[in-house]
Design goal:
single chain; mainly beta; seven-stranded mixed beta sheet; four-stranded antiparallel beta sheet; 46% strand
């Protein structure tokens, strides 16, 4: 199982960013996918999750209404569409799936600053 994120960025407050995660080594369409984030000095937290077949989504309260988590099963890719970014969204963002155990990408840095 391999998860590779891309989309590292520095963005001004209020701006958008869309990191992506390409998965391999498992049947992508059959598994839920998640994005987590970890800010300096804080614990890793769940940001968004999308289920497998029905595409049901869940979001952390802090990002509801601003972030979405679309997936493209044909490309084995999950995205995190982030809009109206705030400085407190600054963190290392990780792609995640559970395939027997937790699998993590290497993380992609998102910095929101003017």
């Amino acid at each position: 199982v391999q998860l590779v994120e891309s989309g590292v960025g520095l963005v001004q407050p209020g701006g958008p960013l869309r990191p992506s995660c390409v998965a391999s080594g498992f049947t992508f369409s059959s598994y839920a996918m998640s994005w987590y984030r970890q800010a300096p000095g804080k614990e890793r937290e769940l940001v968004a999750r999308i289920s497998s077949f029905c595409g049901v989504t869940n979001y952390a309260d802090a990002v509801k209404g601003r972030f979405t988590i679309p997936r493209d099963n044909a490309k084995n890719t999950v995205y995190l569409q982030m809009n109206s970014l705030k400085p407190e969204d600054t963190a290392l963002y990780y792609c995640n799936t559970i395939f027997g155990t937790h699998y993590w990408g290497q993380g992609t840095q998102v910095t929101v600053s003017s």
